[in-house]
Fold these 2 entries.
Entry 1:
Amino acid sequence: MAYDSANIFAKILRGEIPCDKVYEDEWALAFNDIAPVAPVHVLVIPKGAFVSIDDFTADASDAQIAGFYRAVGKVARDLGLAQPGYRTLNNTGSDGGQEVPHFHVHIFGGKTLGPMLVVE
Ligand code: AMP
């Protein structure tokens, strides 16, 4: 699947639409989800043009991958989630329920979370 530079997270990265920013560095941008499903619900996105974890892990450089995942961990630590814990989630493609075609990791926390996954 080709990257669509008109997707909403690409627009956020370009500064064309605002976000509620939590963290930014050379590799990643983190912002609060617009429709949170937990007391803490943050999205972390890489700065490169990647659709999903599929092309990210195939095509991104080691530095991009390391920088991105270090940012995910740092955001969670900075939010005070390392203890008592939190959940990360990445949806991929249509069966995975991915809505926005720019790779992102959800960070959920701030309460005891429910079952890991409900498959209907
Ligand atoms: P996914 O289903 O994994 O693609 O998740 C996409 C997420 O992006 C959802 O949780 C949406 O609530 C969130 N979202 C969509 N548009 C925005 C936006 N403009 N700012 C922040 N979060 C957004």
Entry 2:
Amino acid sequence: MKSRFILGTAFLLGAVGAFGQERPFASIFRPLATPARSEYQLSLLVLAICAAIFVVVGGLLVYIVVKFGDRGPITHAEPPQVYGSNQVEIAWTVLPILIVFVLTMATARVTSALQDRPPAMSSLKVTAIGHQWWWEFRYPDLRVTTANELHVPVSTADHSRTTFLTLESVDVVHSFWVPQISGKTDVIPNRHNRMWIDPQEVGTYFGNCAEYCGAQHAHMLIRLVVDTPEDFDLWVAAQRKAATATQSAGEQNFLGQQCVECHTVRGVPASGDSGPDLTHLMSRSTFAAGMLPTTVENLRRWLKDPQAVKPGNYMPNLELSDKDLDQLVGYLTTLH
Ligand code: CUA
């Protein structure tokens, strides 16, 4: 009994120690934006209160087990009969109420401070749309549409740049979560949920859909790319350009296939909107919602049989010949 308790305590301490280590990505313990930071501070308060409760309850338990665990041979005499204690009953009723009150007020304060912030005229607006199983990002004011990799400018001490996200879903409930930047916000059909972020360090941050949304829920990743303002402007300028029609064999093949029913390539007659916009496919480091690096080999593998790579996704196997595959992959790699 005692050895099992010691083992359990050692395991818990080990787990707590592991949290302190620096993770390469996706850690709520290294917040890099205001929403994530205030949620992190709240979580420390909650953890501290829970740890104190754990120590008190665990300590009493250990004390009682050690002190009263073995009382020698069993006697059959009746133990002393005790009836309640008003002081103790009042204490263990009032104390939990106070603790719950403190936790509720602290949570409500952080939640309302984050939710009630109105978007400034100058802030960047992005509509994030959840699909089974990928993310569409539209920048309505900039006339840019992209997928899975969200670019935003960095927010600095002397120039705060906030991005306001409107979250929508075309099918089921998803949840938008980039742990270092903000907590989760559900993405619900027929609802416009909102959140805002102000990432304060340039870099790429990883997130994922945080609500089970079907077979490929685990392959619904988010890459949040935080750019310097100059890089962000360059990115926007590049994304706004349409593709140049070339009449090449690959382009003709693409336009003749079912591809155009689901995908858009601005600049050529392809304006389907149920799949990701491909106009600047090659500007994204990954495709299939963060599953695969955007390389010739991976594009070929995907086009040959999307269902083998990501079973259940909505891209059908088009039974393409090797010649079609070569032409289509060749065309896709021109979409920078
Ligand atoms: Cu989308 Cu889980």
